[in-house]
Amino acid sequence: MKRKLNPRIAGVRVSMLVHLYRVRLRSHAVQELLAGSGIAVGVALVLGVLVANTSLTGSAGELVHQVVGSSRLQLSARSQQGFEQRLAEDAGQLPGVKVAAPLLRENITLLGPHGRSAVQLLGITPAALQLGTLGAHGARSLVSSGAGFSGGLLIPTSVAATSGLEPGDRVTVLAFGAAHTVKIGGVLGNSAFGALASSPVVLTVLSDAQRLTGLTQRVTQAYVEPLPGRDRLVSSELHRLAGQSLEVAPSDHELSLLEGAAHPNNQSTELFAAISVMVGFLLALNAMLLTVPERRRFVADLRMQGYDWRQIIVLLAFQAIVLGLAASAVGVALGDLLSHAFLHRIPAYLITAFPIGSQEILRPGTIAIALACGVLATVLASLSPALDLRPSRPTDAALRDREGGSEVIGPTTTMKATLAGLVSVVLITVLVLLEPGLTIVGGVLLALATLSAIPGLFALLARGLRWSGERVRSSALIIVVSELRATTTRVVALAGIAALAVYGSVAIGGTRDDLLRGLDANFGEYLQTADVWVTTGGNDLTTNSFAAGGLLPRLRALPQVSSARSYQGGFLDVGDRRMWLIARPPGDYPLIASSQLLHGAQGPAERLLRKGGWATVSGGFASEHGLGVGAHFTLPTPTGPLRLGVAAITSNLGWAPGAIVLNSADYRTRWATGDPTAFEIRLAPGVTPSAGSAAISHALGNRPGLGVQTFAERRHQYMVDSRQGLQALSEIATMLLIAAALAVASALSAAIWQRRARLASLKIQGYATAQLWRALLLESALVLGVGCAVGAVFGVYGHALASRWLRLNTGFPAQFTVGLPGVFLTLALLAIIALAVISLPGLAAARAPARTTFQE
Amino acid sequence: MVKALELRDLAKSYTSGEETVHAVDGVSMTIRGGEFVALYGPSGSGKTTLLLLAAGLAEPDRGQVIFDGRDIGELSDREVSLYRLRDVGFVFQSFHLMPHTSALDNATIKLTGGGSNLREARRTALPWIQRVGLSERAAHTPEQLSMGERQRVAIARALASEPQLLLADEPTGNLDSTRSAEILTLMREVCHEREIPALLVTHDPEAAHYVDRVQTLKDGRLLEGVPTEPEPLIT
Amino acid sequence: MNSSRPTTSSNASMTPLISFQNVSKRFPDGGRQIIVLDDVSLTIEAGISVGVYGNRRSGKSTLLRMAAGIVLPDTGTICFAGKDMSAMSAGERGRLLRDDIAFMSSEDWRAHPGETVLDHVATSLGSEGLTMREARRRAVQILDQVGIGAAGAQEAAASLSLTDRTRAMLARSLAREPRLLVLDEPALMPNLGDRDRFYALLRSAARERGMALLVASEEMAALQGVGVLMSIADGELCSTEERGTVVNLPRRRAAGARPAW
């Protein structure tokens, strides 16, 4: 006889558990749906933020691994100008080397039908195939003759989409200030290109790349794969070959560099992730708490039918896990959508220095964490009926308990919570003052302290309302007071959601505003040395060089121009920092942005810089190398080590890994290039910026490879870039607020709905519908108000701590300023959404017919 | 001046599913000022519906509720609210007090609803809290009061606004026999002293000893007198 | 008046099914304690039916809930089949409700919207480890015994008439074949014919199964035909008389007496 597998848990058949849950789903579909959607929104938030937190370095990680293939070491140039290809070939002949693949990597711009796309050009040779670089198919189609490739550029689908280019199109490529026309050889999708398909990268053969960039017989990298077990030998051989002018590093060294650059960004998303996880958890918890009275009766009924406590626990856990998993799965899908819609924009300033793709990395671990959060909240909340299982409780207690509410928080608990909150705020303050690195932890603890302050505030509020009720003629006050005095866990959870959402928004929003203000001031000063800037354009921190070829004298000859100087800049990898180099012509005034000066005096420092052999360094770099003003340090350059004195210490000038300002004369000699990355032009007195820039464009022959911008235009571009990098965070913050507002509103509505009997009894006492409605709105506004107020106060404090951390630990120029308009905007947004949502169910409850009183 | 409550040929039916229930089916009765009337009837006999009609909380299908010469059915929504606020005192079986609110403040509910501030309302309500014997426990919240005390708070609340009509729905339903006696005595005294009509809906047989007149509602219709003792026993 | 020790025992050497010995129970009411049961003793033998007459708030529900092990006494002992309930673990007392005692109160009716009568009865059998199919098969038989046929079993439980609801509750109680059935205010039925049929059904079910019955009501009619009749008022179990004797109604204060406050 065939037997179906139908095991028992604690003596109950699994099929019976399934049946009981089906009954519940059928009979309480709306509650389950409400609870489920609360959980789903919470999980979506958690996932969205977790993805935001990992996608940046995660996607770059995949990309870097694709580019470097099986190589383990690299030889790399210290400037855009690269090194001789011969050296890369020599590296291939070194003892112990299996393969060495030369590579030329430069930032270029494509002019497609849809506009400009800034991309990295990768020029590769057949050796790349042996490393398995770039996805076998992509590389093979490029370098092996048999694949029918007829030259030109291979572009990934993402670039094809943004630029509007198609295979066979001819495209203008801007590189080193010059324009070339090339054919698009093909578009490579995910299957062929992997992570590269969504990265701002284009491929071509090395010789074509050299032709496009004008770097004949030069490369920027050689990726080396040693024979098994020969890594150390190869490393020392490479060092010998590199001498003093090239870097030898692990192939994936770029990842550590990127991590350094993205670190502050990641840390602030971490803080935000922690807050969102808590909000998500509370959302889920609260949604479940709403179903508790009804679940308790269900449980009591089954116990009266002989289900023992183990069976009840199994039943509750089973239902919670099913609901938790289902809702969390929806949440994961929702969160994935969320991150696709909002999080794929990569901060522009990072693209300049790193080839970061927009690929989302949805790791199994991330999904697991989000799912676990949802299920845990569901299980925790749904186990509360298990409290009825205490032996001291009558078996049928829940059947007879007419109130059916959640637990009331007594004055002792309120007191303890308030004290705990105060103590933790003090502890956090001490902790963060002593060790600013613990600010993220402090931020999370502060969020918890936010919750502990809520019961106390409710108690105070009820007292204040009673006081005013004695003096003000209001029918609503006494009703509201009686509801607020019964501060239940559910009300605290509701206010807590509002508080956490506001806390997160205010803290993050305020810090962001501080940072933007600081960056705006910084870049304003940085750019004010010229009225008109001539650069290669793009979001590049002025680091892409171009061939000057007699342009400067032509500009100087213009009557509109008072002076024109050649500015040089670039990136230099020092240890795990990709430093921003600013090589200013001595004619710049000022050389140092005074607002960014941390140590040292402006006047003497500028004199030293003009003299040469001195530089300013940013705080992070200085403390890492133990440098003070007047100390000396050594920088690696393409011509060997350069010894410089520290003239002053500055903020990081807006580039997270740090910046070094030096004299352009020093740069020209030691980096062995006269190619500028910008012309700085002062206009003659009386010439308007627009007239000046028009004249300059004309004089440059309207070269497409060069961009002419007035000071205001260039500053605007920098402002847009710094905002764009922080955009995703602001968007999640807004969504967090909206989700919180909706959740609070729906939970409040449900709670109000459960009170219809009491409301109806007031009607019998002669209260009019409008009076009751006003009371309900007032009460909702107060619950929200308490949450918002606590959240705002703690949020401003969190903001102060975070700004301090940005300044001290990351060297960003962020000065703490209370942004009251921002705080009020946050509060208003939350309150308006929530009250708007509540008003209708509130009215419906206020209109409950008197009969409801008798239908308990 | 003595005011009377008059019900004229009232009828009200509900439909639940396919059934139509004639909750109240042609009831006429007059309760004079100072008259305490008990209305008996088994569960589902329409007693509560009759109370709701008298309080203007439900609209009759037919007939009129006349109080103090006014037809309640003719009043606007706002006027009906005012009728309940000023003229009607209502006592429930399950009290319906405001949680976590003192006995005294609970007794002020109708006064604040009518526009007094809490301080004035307390001054008015305090004598009533004393009258129902809760002087010592005026500051206690419902959670700290016994069932009997809670019902006394509810009575103080109903009386504090000096109503012209007292309606009670099973006020002793949740009380033991001693507490029931106390509550019924109190209601009777108030009804007589203030010469207001009082209608008590109950199925407590003891209540008959306290009222001036007993009526029975059966299947929506009014019968005179006390309900008969249990039906002939079946062996 | 003092309660003598009521007993239904005809043979003192047998262990009674359930026995109360000097049981008292207080409940907090506001800031005070009220005595709900005051020094109550009684025994019920297997297969005997006992009726308790009492008003609301007289303590009868507490008496019954104690007999089913739902509430424990403050003082005194309650033994089921010779075992002290207070000494049992929560799990053991829970299992009493599964295996030996069924408790039914018209107040506790609780059906899920959309659930059929059949499933309502069947789910109560899940604690015994039955599959849904096995539970439904058993439920069909039981429903048939209480007069709910195949068509009635498929109706929605939530919209049952008062009469059918009471029958369904009885079916649920009988489904696990208890040795003791405790009924608190079993039948608040508007139709007298239905009510009498219900009590007849109840009595025959008890007789056929040899099941003991403990019934409490404020309606005398509900207690017709029980083997032993008692009455309770203000926590005191006032009288216990053999079948056929006159029952002392609990005395109440004379009308109009002023309370002491």
Protein described:
The complex is a heterotrimer of chains A (856), B (235) and C (261). Chain A has 856 residues and is an alpha+beta fold. In chain A, 57% of the residues lie in helices and 16% in strands. Chain A starts with 7 loop residues before the first strand and ends in a 10-residue tail after the last helix. Chain C is an alpha/beta fold and 261 residues long. Helix content of chain C is 29%, strand content 26%. Chain C has helices at 60-67, 90-99, 117-123, 132-145, 150-153, 162-175, 192-209, and strands at residues 18-29, 32-44, 49-54, 75-80, 83-84, 101-105, 180-184, 212-217, 228-233, 236-242. In chain C, the strands form two sheets. Chain C has a six-stranded mixed sheet, sandwiched between helices. Chain C has a four-stranded antiparallel sheet with strand order 2-1-4-5, with helices on one face. In chain C, α3 packs across α4 (132-145) and α4 packs across α6 (162-175). The longest helix of chain C has 18 residues, at 192-209. The relative contact order of chain C is 0.19. Classes of the chains: A alpha+beta (856), B alpha/beta (235), C alpha/beta (261). Chains in contact: A-B, A-C, B-C. The A-B interface holds A 402-403, 408, 466, 469-475, 477-479, 481-483, 485-486, 757-758, 761-769, 771, 849-851, 853-854, 856 and B 48, 52, 55, 57-58, 77-78, 81-86, 88, 90, 92, 94, 96, 98-101, 105, 108-110, 112-119, 122, 157, 161, 169.
